[in-house]
Specification:
heterodimer; A: mainly alpha; three-stranded antiparallel sheet; two-stranded parallel sheet; 22 helices; elongated; B: mainly alpha; 3 strands
Amino acid sequence: MNLNMSSGESIVAQIQGLSTSPRDISQLHAFLKQSDDLIRSDSTRFAPLLTLLDPSIHSLGFLYILDACTSGPTPKEQANEHVCTIARFVKACSTEQIRMAPEKFVSICKKLKDQVMFLAAPIRGIAPMLTAIRKLQSSTEHLTTLHPDFLLLCLSAKCYKNGLSILEDDIYEVDQPRDFLLYGYYGGMICIGLKRFRKAMELLHHVVTAPMSNMSAIAVEAYKKYILVSLIHLGQFNASVPKYASTVAQRNLKNFTQPYLELAVSYGTGKVAELEACIRQHRERFQNDNNFGLARQVVSSIYKRNIQRLTQTYLTLSLEGIANSVQLNSPREAEMHVLQMIQDGEIHATINQKDGMVRFLEDPEQYKSCAMIERIDSSIERMMTLSKKLTATDELMSCDPAYLSRVGKERAPRLDFDDYDPVPQKFSM
Amino acid sequence: MEPEPETLNTPNGDTAAPHRPITNPDSVLDVESYSSLYSGRTKITRLLFIAERCDVVSMQLEALRMAYDEVKKGENTQLFREVVSKIAGRLGDAYGPDPDWSDVVDRKADARKDKLENELNAYRTNLIKESIRMGYNDFGDFYYAHGALGDAFKNYVRTRDYCTTSKHIIHMCLNAILVSIEMGQFTHVTSYVSKAEQSQEAVEPIVAAKLRCAAGLAHLEAKKYKLAARMFLETHPELGNNYSEVIAAQDVATYGGLCALASFDRAELKAKVIDNINFRNFLELVPEVRELIHDFYSSHYASCLDYLGSLKSNLLLDIHLHDHVDTLYDQIRSKALIQYTHPFVSVDMRMMADAFKTTVAGLEKELESLITENQIQARIDSHNKILYARHADQRNATFQRVLQTGNEFDRDVKAMLLRANLIKNEFYSKQSKKLHNF
């Protein structure tokens, strides 16, 4: 059926006319929702009409039309065009208007991600996605559906630093649990890439202990990486899954990650030869999971761990002694390792090349400087804010009717005599 | 067994010779005098154990011969067959399987069993408590003599319902303890010891000593060396050889002394062992243990470790102590090392190696493991071979812990709030799903 141009133009006119005041916008929103099917059915006609609209003022209308145009399979030639249009829109759109139709916004951003991946140029999508997230979030503590997509783009483009800015925010509100798992997993991978192992462990730990009713493959993969990162960063791995993790996780994680747990056990012995044998044995498995690079890092970390243990027992030790106890091949290698660790600040020592001796020193930090006092002070303030937040959440929860009804049911309905005040009642004869 | 050196050289040039006149340089365990300390079933089991564990063939055969003689005095045909199979004809015909004797004994046993059963049934119909008790007791004795330890135990325990005085209860407990020790079930031993102790106010010293020994053995088996030591040290010397069906007085001294040395700290060692007049009587019976405790206390570690070395091979033949010897020895050696370094700010490792009769490299390894386990607070200067005491700086350590606790709190609380939020969302989504279903 041939739709006459006037309906398309009338929609455009409506959009243009009603995009000024907030009341008008809600009216426009209702109108657009009604006309949604109409727009979708004839999306190709509407595409040129986009030029008539200004994305910053007519964001809502633009969004509806753009969504209709870009949904559905896209031919190769148009991919580039779509990417540019969407990117421009995201940059220019107005935050309040797009927040009225968040699903549509999310869907065009996902389309953007698909297209840049298809064009094998993920780096093009990073800046627009970042802007999109910032506009969609109600606060920096809010996790949107776009977060994991953004992190995926950063990973594919190897632009880890951009991802880091998002990861620095603490998340407290989550829309969809599944997004959260992916966010944690990709975030962990980005941190590993940047060698920020502490943050990586935190994120992966969140994924592993998140509440879930069925075993999630994301959690299993996250657990594998968690084991490896824990070995690299802390030098040990606590094999017991914490009690606050979901019951499915507690029961099943170990079954899926056997080779990694064996690796952790052989790491615990401190013997390099055993560790390497274990890695060789499970090499294929590690490679399939794309964890072989991490596994190799685990091996280099065991040398560091052993040298650090030596600092606890020795004041001075010959390089040969170090080489022997850490199972390195020669004193020269030992010297290289020790030198690297001193430079990284992991141990405090001096090397005397004439005697071939290493002298281990105490940590020079005296905790007396102004900088340290400021650090402690800011820590305390941070703790206090966090405590207040926790108390507030607790209070909120205690007033929740669902909670109260549940707790009330469990308490025994009868009243104890002891509840009464033990003051003798007045006799009344 | 290698011969021990005749003289000692301590680094301070102390007169060491007077420490050594007691032991026989070729001290092989004298099987005969060892077994004369015991009586009853334990004598046979001990002899069999020695035969099993010993490498010297002559000692083996000696032990087996004595076991054979002892078994023949009793009525345990099962054990007899075992001894015979172990001898395997090596001692000639006089020590071969004696089927006639076995038959006679078995027939007598059957007859006695029938008689006991009839008696017991008679008593049971008459409902005389004392007789029933004695009936069960006799049954217990009978089964014990014939090696059916499980049945013996059951019967002894059955007398419990018919015990009227506390003496009866003690009797029952002692029997139960004896059988449990023979069976190797030391949990029963502990429970029956406590039962016996609860029952009576004024316990006879000999009985009390027996109970203490039994408790000590149970703790030893459970590797609770400190408790075992305490039990053995509290044993009254009146025990003498009244408990030879379980333990000899020499054993009390050895077990008590070694466990105390491995687990007590210096103050406790002095108060409970060295100044303990009662225990002194026991120590007189085993002079090596007495000497080695004194050496340890007065820091003559080399001679102390020498005594230990000479005792080791004999202790490995003891049925109760053999699998604890290594642990105890390691603990004693570690304690010696720790005690040596304790009063000093710096220790020359060469002198220390001499004092402990070991090489500097070996000593360094031992010290390294002790430092890693945090039993010695010190650091090794491997270049000059000196051990420096190192006391952790409390102030710095506190600051470090504070910052760390802060970080952990931060991390945990944030994770918790996050999880709470996730659960809340899931909860709401489940709720909304329920609503949609209507």
